[in-house]
Design a protein that fits this description.
Number of strands of chain B: 10
Largest interface: A-B, 25 and 29 residues
Order of helices and strands of chain A: HHHHHHHHH
Strand order of the largest sheet of chain B: 4-1-5-10-6-9-7-8
Largest sheet of chain B: 8 strands, mixed
Number of helices of chain B: 11
Oligomer: heterodimer
Radius of gyration of chain B: 22 Å
Shape of chain A: elongated
Helix content of chain B: 40-55%
Distance between the termini of chain B: 60 Å
Strand content of chain A: under 5%
CATH architecture of chain A: Orthogonal Bundle
CATH class of the largest domain in chain B: Alpha Beta
CATH superfamily of the largest domain in chain B: Periplasmic binding protein-like II
Number of helices of chain A: 9
Chain lengths: 221, 275
């Protein structure tokens, strides 16, 4: 290979890359947490017998799962912009990622809910628990235990997809990488370092998630 | 065969491969033998590069690709690039040359080979009529945007930093078109672009109510063709080609076609001075 790598240029710009990496971490973790909260509600809504409640949830899930994330981020920024609703690049990427995360996780959570025997609902009810108590103390803890690993997959997905923030000029890791490489044209070096950073962010998040899971699900799994 | 023999065979074959590749044709030979010139253009930057109404590549840069190909006696293949794709396309061998309004900074020249300049741009502010941006310092409390990875983005950010304006008023867009779209939608109050692109946009009905504002102070954007840094003979050919474009009147012809006037004498002078 005739290409000479020059790494010192990249190391000089490491602080800027790291600040980009922090934005990536920030937006993906936040989109995941909000996504989980919405997905629980959507999953319960989707299982409802009333079509009035299940239909909106179904529509959300279908759109989120069957259109590209690139398109959703673009719509959140320029699409809403055409109607005079101006989100900042950060808000546009965050809301698009929340939208997709919630859509995908709904199906995962629904699977988790369905895997819990119906008899547990009736048993809890007969002990005098309210619906909220049944979910809070009986159903949700078991559901999260079962879908924990598929859920972390979604986590990885949102870290990697946040790179599409570059589309709307967000200063996350990919955006910073693109900007910095254009100054020196050391494209390959910057992209390789960015890839390593994505890898480390993903590993870090998965490691933190496994620590959390050990605490939450002590005694089983 | 024992291990020693195997190793020496391996070494010998690697050496042979190196010798053969060293004797390989250079870029100029490769292009001529291939019979086609892979020419990268940013087709998002009228009137230098854009898609015409038949969705075919057109523009000043595209014409330069065709002129270069006909000088070489080969066919031109136009590849559409984004600003960020320019270098990877050269390194990966997808393009032989990029005619893509690339600013010839010394920092970049460490990575890529530049020809002589072939055009000089001015960077200019573009905003709605009545936004009262008369000098560059009026951008202080204004939301400004530009395309990601362009020299005017760098220039604006450097200026803003020097003046202590901060980064909060700045939005970068993935492409030139997105920057204009962002301005049109009111996401930003002003964008920075090149005088040539702004002049083109002013002729469209979407931008009737807009006005070209002040130039970025003390900055001429001198741009060259780019090729692999190691292909010195090829760059040599590109340089002579650019000189001939001026000498044979081709540049004037192309300029007339895309800008509607003869090449200004100061532009020709700037190209000769910067050479």
């Amino acid at each position: 290979m005739e290409y000479e790598f020059h790494w010192n240029i990249v190391f000089d710009k490491l602080p800027q890359l790291l600040s980009g990496a922090f934005v990536t971490l920030h937006v993906s973790v936040l989109s995941m947490l909000i996504g989980i909260a919405i997905a629980v509600l959507l999953a319960i809504a989707k299982m409802s017998d009333s079509r009035l409640i299940s239909l909106p949830a179904t529509v959300w899930v279908e759109i989120a799962r069957n259109t590209p994330a690139l398109f959703q981020i673009y719509m959140a920024y320029f699409g809403l912009g055409a109607f005079g609703i101006h989100l900042s690049p950060y808000a546009a990427v965050l809301s698009a990622l929340v939208f997709v995360n919630a859509g995908y996780l709904t199906e995962t959570f629904r699977g988790g809910f369905l895997s819990i025997p119906k008899t547990q609902y009736s048993a809890s009810k007969s002990l005098g628990m309210s619906s909220i108590q049944v979910y809070r103390y009986i159903i949700l803890p078991q559901m999260f235990r079962r879908i924990y690993h598929p859920m972390t997959n979604q986590f990885v997905w949102s870290i990697l997809m946040s790179s599409l923030g570059i589309l709307v000029g967000m200063n996350e890791l990919s955006g910073e990488t693109q900007r910095l490489q254009s100054l020196s044209f050391r494209t390959l070096e910057f992209f390789i370092v960015a890839a390593v950073m994505y890898f480390l962010i993903t590993k870090f998040v998965l490691f933190s998630a496994s620590l959390v899971s050990q605490r939450l699900f002590r005694g089983d799994i | 065969m024992n291990l020693k023999k195997k190793i020496s065979l391996l070494v010998a074959s690697i050496m042979a491969a190196t010798v053969f590749s060293a004797a390989q044709a250079d870029q100029l030979d490769t292009v001529i033998k291939r019979g086609a010139l892979n020419c990268g253009v940013v087709l998002d930057f009228p009137p230098m590069g854009y898609f015409d109404k038949d969705n075919k590549p057109a523009g000043f840069d595209v014409d330069y690709c065709n002129d270069l190909a006909s000088a070489l006696g080969v066919k031109a293949k136009i590849l559409n690039l984004t600003w960020g794709d320019r270098i990877p396309s050269l390194v990966s061998g997808k393009t032989d040359v990029v005619v893509g309004s690339t600013s010839d900074t010394l920092e970049r020249a460490k990575s890529v080979g530049f020809s002589y300049p072939y055009f000089v741009f001015k960077f200019q502010v573009f905003s709605k009529k009545g936004s009262n941006i008369n000098k560059f310092d009026d951008l202080k409390n204004v939301k400004v945007g530009a395309a990601l990875g362009t020299t005017y983005e760098t220039e604006y950010l450097a200026y803003a930093k020097k003046k202590g304006w901060g980064k909060n008023n700045y939005t970068s867009f993935k492409s030139e078109n997105d920057a204009y779209l962002g301005l049109y939608q009111g996401k930003v109050d002003a964008i920075i672009s090149t005088n040539t692109n702004i002049a083109t946009k002013l002729q469209t009905k979407e931008f009737k109510g807009y006005v070209a504002g002040p130039y970025v102070p003390n900055y001429d954007d001198v741009v060259g063709l780019i090729a692999k840094r190691s292909e010195v003979a090829w760059i040599n050919y590109l340089n002579l080609f650019l000189i001939h474009q001026i000498r044979d009147g081709k540049m004037n012809e192309r300029y007339n076609k895309h800008f509607g006037s003869d090449v200004p004498a100061d532009l020709i002078q700037a190209l000769r001075d910067n050479k």
